[in-house]
Amino acid sequence: MLRSILLYLSVAGWAQRIATRNWLARRVARRFVAGETLEESVAVAKALNQDGFRVTFTYLGEAVYREEETRQVVAEYQRVNEVIARENLNAEISLKVTQLGLEIDEEICHNNLRDILNHARERAGTRVVLDMESSPYLEATLRLYRGLREEFGAQVGVAIQAYLFRSAEDLTQLAAPDAVIRIVKGAYLESPAIAFDDKAKVDENYVRLVEQFLSDDGAFLDIATHDEKMITAAQRFIAANEIPPDRYEFQMLYGIRNELQRELVADEPTCVLISFGEEWYPYFVRRLAERPANLVFFLRGLFGR
What digits encode the pLDDT tens for the residues 269-299? Predict the structure, then answer.
């Protein structure tokens, strides 16, 4: 129930207006957001690189409905490419296709993605992963990924959500030597007709998907989770099947379970996703929905306890 309420609030305009005007909410949200500017997030990225982590940059924002606004998003990701190359950062990019014009026209979105990928290839060869958003965008996101993979190969990846019934079949279709897949649990409110609504079943499917994809020779897997049970299950499978460390990477979000992140990076290839930008509200509320402990932290910070 709490998760459903928070996911509703993540897309409620009235709630966003209240939160973004509250300086205390903005202050506490900084636990999960590396900064409102790229420059602030770069300082965080450098520190994480020094501690042995790779990083993923993501520019916060939701669906864009005007083509000129999508070009602003493209320009911001090109700035990220420039910084990664100039500062020699161990980093990649993760982005939302709706922020690049999918709601306007799929071809516009495709062209924007190509511009970002070409720009990245000309600089540091940065990898770009397409986030998976709510189910209405799933088919288009996979089409975009397949088309881009033909041109850019392993430079482009896509996320798959473990709470969807169809994900095992999607992985079967996507399996290829140059495939780059990120497996996440899923952070949107979906119908029980298409998604597991029980955490235990989502967890079970998550482990099954990790094992399925790691069994495909040559493909690369981002194991994106903060759940110690999921991490342990993946590590056991990796050890039992002698999966080399150039085939996978554990991924976690900035500001969540920092101690676990430090423990993990000592033994495993580990990446931290750092987000930046002024459109922090939907991202922040989805982080609260994912883990009740995050909500407790937020309330304590909000009321100064």
Answer: 999 999 998 765 665 666 665 655 555 544 4
> Six-digit token pair at 142?
């996979």
Tens of pLDDT, residues 254-264: 988 899 999 99
d(CA 264, CA 47): 17
Pick the closest to residue 91 from 57, 58, 47 (CA basis): 57
What is the secondary structure of 214-253 as a DSSP string? HTSTT-EEEEE---HHHHHHHHHHHHHTT--GGGEEEEEE
Instruction: Answer with the residue of higher pLDDT: 18 or 160.
Output: 160
H helix intervals, 99-227: 106-122, 138-152, 167-174, 199-214
pLDDT at 187: 79
Question: Which one is catalytic: 127, 149, 182, 287?
Answer: 182
Residue-range domains of the chain with CATH: 1-33+281-305 (no CATH), 34-279 (3.20.20.220)
Q: Which two tokens stand for residue 244?
A: 């080399």
- Choosing from 54, 127, 131, 203, the catalytic residue is 131
The question of whether 131 is a catalytic residue gets the answer yes
Q: Is 246 a catalytic residue?
A: no
pLDDT reading at 19 higher than 70: no
